[in-house]
Design goal:
This protein is mainly α and about 425 residues long. About 45% of the residues lie in helices and about 5% in strands. α4 (about 110-120) runs parallel beside α6 (about 155-170), α9 (about 250-265) crosses α10 (about 285-295) and α9 crosses α11 (about 300-320). The longest helix has 23 residues, at about 390-410.
């Protein structure tokens, strides 16, 4: 998810102060709440500070609930729609949603694209969705892609999340062209590595123009290249399992999926590498990779990492909060796995327990059962902390602190 995920990917990356703009990481785990969050964010899923990821995690939660047959709480939906600015964009969190957005409001493409996917799935929000899509189109770069911030350098994760938003609203990505007549497909092709370099996707070009393989960006790029939203339907069995020179974004997505299959073959999971820290399994990006493999039809290659996720994912979700629960629900959906019996854990109950009680659900457990499921997940083996946010922030720091300052002075946004 693009953040990814996409999408995401792929999640909560930018902070603006009254004097300057700078990137700052969201909490790695959602178990360190800010004292005033519950008062300020009634209806929001999770109890950690929503400053950097409120709309993103709320959108993922609502989208995952809908996918699992749960009718979300009206309060939760109202919280999300209330965060939208008049121009259609979304910021991660506006403490006073009644105040007009201005040049200092940190809106961005990732929060907006994820909100579009959630609201489009829920239905009944045509006006809000339409305005958000129009805003996303206005933020398209000349190369056909999108950056995290409007006007920021194009990256694979942001471009793929926006493609997913377009797909969720029935808009063909190839029909959305830039002022220089470039499409989102053109942007993704420009971020795909040659077969000699593995066929993966890069997040963004390096300063010298080189492309470096990035598994998180690759998982997002696979969905984007296939024109898929975050809600994935299993693709046809893939005929292509090795890298080939891509003629279009769909072929580049096939190359990216083959790359992920190769990387996952050894350990059954992706590994995070942080400076000064020991390598550790990366549960969130593994979930994204499994989803991407199913979207591309490489289901056999996904079996081993899916089994690893079923064993280790629930404990990670308990530690990391609603975005993680939602991510696993979406992965379960993509793989045809029951999200209410994922490695012996009810992911839907775990997600529901992190926010307002849903209106209704198919086979929804009682509040007591939801609490027990969440507690059971905490005791599961293989607990890790996802470093997705930290990695994403680190990349973005190098890409655009100066740009953010400039953008805030011009028009503001996040």
């Amino acid at each position: 998810m693009t953040v990814r995920r996409s999408a995401l990917a792929l999640t909560a990356l930018t902070a603006l102060t009254a004097a300057s703009a700078a990137f700052a990481p969201a909490a790695v785990a959602e178990d360190s709440p800010a004292p005033s969050v519950k008062k300020l964010a009634s209806g929001l899923y999770g109890d950690s500070d929503p400053t950097y990821d409120g709309v993103y995690r709320q959108s993922l939660a609502l989208l995952a609930q809908h996918t699992a047959g749960v009718e979300p709480s009206a309060k939760a939906v109202d919280w999300l729609t209330g965060q939208q600015c008049a121009d259609g964009s979304f910021a991660p969190f506006r403490a006073d949603a009644s105040a007009d957005c201005d040049a200092k409001t940190p809106v961005d493409t990732n929060q907006t694209a994820t909100a579009v996917q959630a609201l489009a799935a829920l239905g009944g929000h045509d006006e809000a969705v339409g305005k958000a899509v129009d805003w996303l189109k206005s933020a398209q770069n000349d190369d056909g892609g999108w950056g995290y911030l409007p006007g920021g350098a194009t990256d694979t994760n942001s471009t793929s999340l926006v493609i997913g938003a377009l797909a969720a609203t029935g808009t063909k990505a190839e029909a959305v062209t830039s002022k220089k007549d470039k499409t989102p497909e053109d942007a993704l092709l420009g971020l795909s590595l040659k077969c000699a370099d593995g066929g993966a996707f890069a997040f963004q070009p390096e300063k010298n123009g080189d492309l470096t393989a990035n598994e998180d960006a690759t998982a997002a790029g696979v969905l984007g290249g296939l024109g898929s939203s975050l809600v994935v339907t299993k693709g046809d069995s893939a005929a292509q399992t090795a890298c080939e020179k891509p003629a279009d974004a769909r072929a580049a997505a096939a190359n990216g999926a083959a790359h992920l299959a190769d990387v996952l073959e050894k350990d059954g999971h992706l590994t995070s590498a942080m400076p000064g820290a020991e390598d550790q399994p990366d549960t969130g990006n593994t979930a994204d990779a499994v989803t991407a493999l199913y979207a591309a039809g490489l289901t056999d290659a996904a079996k081993k990492p899916l089994a690893w996720l079923e064993k280790n994912g629930p404990a990670w979700a308990k530690q990391s909060g609603p975005s993680a629960w939602a991510q696993l629900v979406l992965t379960a959906h993509a793989t045809g796995t029951d999200p209410r019996a994922f490695g012996g854990t009810d992911l839907v109950a775990g997600l529901n327990a992190t926010g307002p009680a849903p209106k209704s659900a198919e086979n929804t457990p009682s509040a007591e059962d939801s609490a027990k499921q969440a507690e059971d997940a905490e005791d599961a083996d293989g607990s890790q902390i996802s470093v997705w946010w930290i990695v994403g922030v680190g990349v973005l720091v190098g890409a655009g602190i100066g740009l953010m300052i400039s953008l805030r002075n011009k028009s503001g946004r996040k």
